[in-house]
Write a structure and sequence with these properties.
Blueprint: E1 3-8, E2 11-16, E3 19-25, E4 32-40, E5 43-51, E6 65-67, E7 70-73, E8 79-80, E9 82-85, H1 90-93, E10 97-100, E11 103-106, E12 118-122
Length: 134
C-alpha cells in the first residue's frame, strides 16, 4: 500500500492509501464538488472530477456527463506531483474532506485547522517510520 503525505502548519501526517477522494463545497454556489485520486508510483493521478451544478466559474467541460445528479468527467492532464489545498474560513465554506476506504474526515481533523496551504503528495519511500493514521 502507498502512503499519502498531508502536510500543513509544520505537521506531516502519513495515511496508508492507494485511492482517495477529496470533497468540498463550492464557496459561492454552495454545491458539492468531489475528486477521485489514485497514487501511481511517485505521482497522484486525478481519475474523476464531479460537481453537482454549475456557475461561478465552475462549469463542467463539454465531455462531462450528467449521472446520478453529478456532472462527471476525467481530466485531460491527470498527473500531479502534489496537490495544494487552500482553506477558506470554516464558517464560509466548511472544510475539505478526505475519504479513504469509505471513511471521510475533515482536513481539520488530520492537520491543524489553521494549516493553509495544505500539501498532498506521495510520501517518499523511506517515510514508513512514524506512520500515523489520523
Amino acid at each position: 500500500m502507498s502512503l499519502l503525505c498531508i502536510a500543513g502548519a509544520g505537521v506531516t501526517v502519513r495515511i496508508a492509501a492507494t485511492v482517495f477522494t477529496l470533497a468540498w463545497t463550492h464557496t459561492i454556489e454552495k454545491v458539492p464538488w468531489e475528486e477521485d485520486w489514485r497514487i501511481e508510483g511517485h505521482r497522484l493521478m486525478l481519475t474523476q472530477s464531479r460537481i453537482k451544478g454549475s456557475g461561478a466559474g465552475m462549469e463542467p467541460p463539454p465531455d462531462a456527463r450528467l449521472e446520478d445528479g453529478f456532472y462527471r468527467w476525467a481530466p485531460a492532464d491527470p498527473y500531479r506531483t502534489e496537490v495544494i489545498l487552500r482553506r477558506a474560513p470554516v464558517e464560509i465554506a466548511g472544510d475539505w474532506r478526505l475519504c479513504v476506504d469509505g471513511a471521510c474526515r475533515r482536513l481539520g481533523e488530520i492537520v491543524p485547522v489553521e494549516a493553509d496551504p495544505v500539501r498532498l503528495s506521495v510520501c517518499p519511500d523511506d517515510a514508513t517510520d512514524g506512520l500515523r493514521s489520523p
